[in-house]
Specification:
The protein contains eight helices and no strands. The protein is an all-alpha fold. Helix 1 packs antiparallel against helix 3, helix 5 packs parallel to helix 7 and helix 6 runs antiparallel to helix 7.
Length: about 260
């Protein structure tokens, strides 16, 4: 059990025992009142008064403890429910091919694999789909390499370059999303539809590869800039130039404008 779980279990235990003690002292105080005359006769007024005082103090203390742990338990439960709600909202990414918001590359791959099954009998489409997956793999590779480059050089000031590659990845995902939508409405048994699919798949690969080439040049510019620190060589202007090239390509809209 993790630390947070142990803390929650401890709070529940304190709340439970404070409630039991408060209930117990309530019962004892009630019995003391009911049996007042018997206590006075057999134990004396002084003993009864002492017991009554002790029981009253115990009832007050246990009551305060119970209210305190009740409030704390209530806050904990409310906080936990809020965290669970926030987690549920975060985990709910919406539709796999949603129009607005970030697309999940893994979901895009899954949907592409699902829709591609009826089309793989055509070697042209099968090869094209393999090419599309390769562009997504290449993008993953560039993102991983950039992270390693920045981490090893301690280049915190260039962390925004990772955001640029994230935007490129999203553009590639949206290209693939458009292709998936076309695959959904077309018939893999129809020769004309297969020809259209080949053309659209090749357009997707072409646009993705253009972005990947610019991404490669962008990363080379970043590495040259890092290498040039303290020496003559690449400049931040080159990095900004390739960043602009990538941004412009993304704003152009890609395939199926």
């Amino acid at each position: 059990m993790n630390v947070q779980g142990n803390q929650r279990a401890g709070e529940n235990r304190y709340f439970r025992w404070s409630g039991i003690m408060f209930a117990l002292f309530c019962v004892l105080r009630f019995l003391l009142i009911i049996l007042r005359d018997i206590f006075i006769v057999y134990a004396g007024i002084r003993v009864f008064s002492a017991l009554s005082l002790i029981m009253t103090l115990a009832l007050i203390v246990s009551g305060v403890c119970f209210i305190f742990f009740l409030a704390k338990w209530g806050i904990t439960v409310s906080k936990r429910k809020k965290e669970e709600l926030m987690t549920a909202v975060r985990n709910d990414e919406g539709p796999d091919l949603k129009i607005k918001g970030e697309l999940n590359p893994l979901k895009i791959r899954e949907n592409l694999a699902t829709e591609a099954r009826p089309w793989t009998s055509d070697p042209r489409i099968s090869n094209a789909l393999g090419g599309i997956l390769k562009t997504m793999d290449d993008m993953d590779g560039y993102q991983a390499k950039l992270k390693v480059l920045l981490d090893r050089n301690g280049a915190e000031a260039l962390r925004d370059t990772e955001e640029v590659l994230d935007k490129v990845e999203q553009h590639i995902c949206r290209n693939v999303r458009k292709l998936i939508n076309i695959m959904t409405v077309m018939d893999s048994r129809n020769a004309n539809d297969r020809d259209v699919m080949v053309q659209n798949a090749n357009n997707c690969i072409e646009d993705n590869n253009k972005l990947l080439l610019s991404t490669r040049n962008f990363m080379v510019a970043v590495s040259q800039f890092l290498n040039s620190q303290g020496e003559e060589g690449g400049t931040i202007e080159e990095v900004e130039e390739y960043k602009k090239i990538l941004t412009d390509q993304i704003l152009e809209g890609g395939i199926y404008k």
